DNA sequence: CGAGCCCTTGAACGCCGTCAAACTCAGTGG
DNA sequence: CCACTGAGTTTGACGGCGTTCAAGGGCTCG
């Protein structure tokens, strides 16, 4: 099946290159041919902005768009009837989000903009049409979702079998790696707009206890988290605590 | 790209229909055309048997095969340097396993046969070649991995934000649903060859405490787990405890 | 200036992990 | 046939860690 590259489509407003994050994201681990990139670059992607605190995807909503996160932070979470919340994952620029809710119609995830967020909105039918005749493209999306799954698996290991202090160490190291991969932050510090309560809900702790663990890490001179900045002071110690290996993030 | 249906390939030993579980699995949620099924049915699948306790995939091993589980139970897990183990997921007949370790080369999952296990071994290049010109097939695998991810996400919610008794209730209900979907077990009882220690390692509990929770559930006349059988006595109570909705399993 | 959110710290309770012991049962070998 | 072993289950005692409850401070907004 040939891909629709007709003038009509080509005329639709395409985003300028800096926001063509999707091609960069998917090109990471599958060896794309020039034609693959051409197909991706021809996808219509509309820029959208969500204000801080706004739900991008709301529980149970039927969806026909995926999003590529261009700027800002987001997170996916579930609300439980017992009044608690579990954060599934945080998303940083370059992440592809909303694929699961599209294919899994009964998915009760919420997706929330933590800061002001800029996304590229991708119509799902366009995306899947692009896959149809191109195995490498399909594989790249498969790869991307498997990587997301690997991250969730690590969170499960964190929450299930690591001491709180180790969890927190692991969490900050993971964020550091993910941000480095997209050129945000250095080896020793990065910006992090999350609240302690949000992180606690990701790590299966109470906000109070997370705060106490932070103090421990500060007193160990291992890491600090203050006013939206994370500083990794003693990375070696952190990695020992967390048993951290960034391989699963590539 | 035409699919290789040459006599040479057709002559290779194909499994008889009852073990052609792969077609049934992938046909579940994508509307397959007859030609899709033809392609799948023409895939060479070699039957393999693993004895109880045997590792199907070992940490860090480089893989070129995926497996469709035809009989028996398996589980994926991670070992931590602190000496603990986190079970990621259990697999029952009909489940497709090993896709993540194939694409994610640095995946340190282990996959273990809990009982004697019969699998169909699928060469990954054959599988991906089949995808290449057929979007529905590619999508079906994507769907399958997204469903797996949804299950892991539920486990994360379990471990992160549910009380132990609620976790256990949720766990038994999930297994019940998954087994029912493949015709194993009834609404009120099913066979379950897992040890208490294995389940505890999936739920982020100690074996001792899991055992105590089992007693609670027995005394509540909600469920029993004894000699390899799970009995759901008071499903309504269990569902209330667990806040269970089987939608994520389809 | 008050409201509300976030962070921080203290006090106290109780859940759940640790340690330990006893029991069942299957498998093995004398 | 029985002794021995090891894995799995069950139960008790105990203590510590993390939750809950509560109060106070800093900050941003309206």
Count up the helices of chain A: 10
Largest interface between protein chains, with number of residues from each side: A-B, 54 and 54 residues
- Straight-line distance between termini of chain A: 33 Å
Helical residue percent of chain A?
Answer: 40-55%
Mean pLDDT of chain A, to the nearest integer, reads: 88
Overall, the morphology of chain A is globular
Walk across the major sheet of chain A and give the strand order.
1-8-3-6
Strand element count of chain A: 11
Oligomer: homodimer
Structural class of the helices, strands and pairings of chain A?
A: alpha+beta
Give the SSE string of chain A.
Answer: HHHEEEEEEHEEHHHEHHEEH
Evaluate the radius of gyration of chain A: 19 Å
Largest sheet of chain A: 4 strands, antiparallel
List segments of chain A where confidence is low: pLDDT < 50 over at least 5 consecutive residues.
1-14
Strand content of chain A: 15-25%
């Amino acid at each position: 099946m040939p891909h629709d590259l007709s003038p009509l489509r080509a005329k639709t407003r395409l985003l300028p290159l800096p926001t063509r994050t999707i091609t960069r994201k998917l090109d990471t681990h599958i060896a794309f041919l020039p034609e693959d990139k051409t197909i991706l670059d021809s996808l219509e992607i509309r820029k959208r902005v969500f204000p801080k605190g706004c739900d991008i995807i709301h529980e149970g909503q039927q969806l026909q768009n995926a999003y590529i996160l261009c700027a800002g932070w987001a997170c996916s979470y579930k609300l439980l009837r017992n009044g608690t919340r579990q954060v599934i994952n945080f998303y940083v620029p370059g992440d592809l989000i909303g694929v699961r809710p599209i294919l899994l119609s009964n998915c009760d995830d919420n997706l929330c903009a933590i800061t002001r967020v800029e996304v590229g909105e991708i119509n799902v039918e366009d995306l899947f049409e692009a896959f149809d005749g191109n195995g490498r493209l399909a594989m790249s999306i498969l790869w991307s979702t498997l990587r997301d799954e690997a991250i969730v698996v690590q969170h499960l290991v964190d929450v299930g079998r690591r001491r709180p202090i180790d969890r927190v160490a692991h969490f900050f190291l993971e964020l550091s790696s993910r941000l480095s991969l997209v050129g945000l932050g250095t080896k020793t510090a990065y910006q992090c707009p999350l609240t302690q309560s949000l992180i606690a809900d990701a790590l299966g702790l109470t906000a109070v206890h997370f705060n106490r663990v932070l103090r421990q890490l500060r007193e160990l001179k291992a890491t600090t988290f203050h006013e939206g900045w994370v500083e990794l002071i003693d990375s070696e110690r952190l990695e020992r605590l967390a048993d951290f290996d960034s391989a699963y993030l590539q």
